[in-house]
């Protein structure tokens, strides 16, 4: 199955609400399409990470409690996991395990870095997107998982993680 990486990224609000068409096209050229079998852990809680995954096909469970707890969410095509780690390098806050065979699009720090280098003003827009997204997740799942979201420190964390004076 072929993945239209540009269309997949453009259809995802995490990127579409922040990036322009040229930036989406550049990111699409650097994103990685991957197939993972059922049972595979895409993300393991408490591990470091620097990428996110867009689910293209199949379903994954989000599991809190070091991967041994019960699933707190089941996600499918169009859903995104790992955005806080991609943007800040924060440790993974949950385990994400493929329930079925899945096809994902992985966006890495290395793929996003040239875009942020060229347009450092995007950092503040991504920080706002992360705050909004985390507030939604906290409302749905009833827990507060990232304390810097209320402070101006989130954009600074992104700048620090990407390593330049963005």
Write down the overall mean pLDDT: 88
**Share of helical residues:** 25-40%
| Rounded radius of gyration (Å) | 15 Å
Helix tally equals 7
Low-confidence parts: none
The N- and C-terminal alpha carbons lie at a distance of: 37 Å
SS content category: alpha+beta
Please list the strands of the largest sheet in the order they lie side by side: 1-8-3-6
- Tell me, briefly, the overall form: globular
**Got a strand count?**
8
Main pleated sheet: 4 strands, antiparallel
Instruction: Tell me what portion of residues adopts beta-strand conformation.
Output: 15-25%
Structure write-up:
The chain is α+β, with helices and mostly antiparallel strands and 166 residues long. The chain contains seven helices and eight strands, in the order αααββββββαββααα. It has helices spanning 5-10, 13-16, 21-30, 83-88, 109-118, 122-141, 153-162; strands spanning 32-36, 41-43, 51-57, 60-63, 71-75, 80-81, 95-98, 102-108. The protein has a four-stranded antiparallel sheet. The chain has a four-stranded antiparallel sheet with strand order 2-7-4-5, with no helix packed on it. Helix 3 packs antiparallel against helix 5 (109-118) and helix 6 (122-141) crosses helix 7 (153-162). The longest helix is centred in the C-terminal third of the chain and has 20 residues, at 122-141. The termini are far apart.
């Amino acid at each position: 199955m072929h993945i239209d990486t540009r269309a997949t990224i453009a259809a995802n609000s995490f990127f579409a609400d922040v990036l322009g068409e040229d930036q989406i096209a550049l990111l699409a050229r650097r994103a990685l399409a991957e197939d993972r079998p059922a049972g595979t852990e895409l993300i393991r809680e408490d591990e470091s990470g620097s990428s996110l995954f867009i689910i293209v096909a199949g379903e994954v469970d989000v599991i809190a409690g070091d991967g041994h707890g019960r699933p707190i969410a089941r996600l499918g095509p169009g859903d995104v996991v790992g955005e806080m780690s991609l943007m800040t390098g924060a440790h993974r806050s949950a385990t994400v395990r493929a329930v079925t065979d899945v096809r994902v699009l992985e966006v890495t720090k290395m793929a996003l870095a040239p875009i942020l280098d060229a347009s450092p003003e995007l950092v503040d827009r991504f920080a706002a997107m992360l705050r909004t997204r985390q507030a939604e997740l906290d409302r749905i799942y009833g827990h507060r998982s990232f304390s810097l979201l209320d402070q101006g420190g989130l954009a600074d964390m992104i700048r620090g993680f990407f390593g330049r004076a963005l």
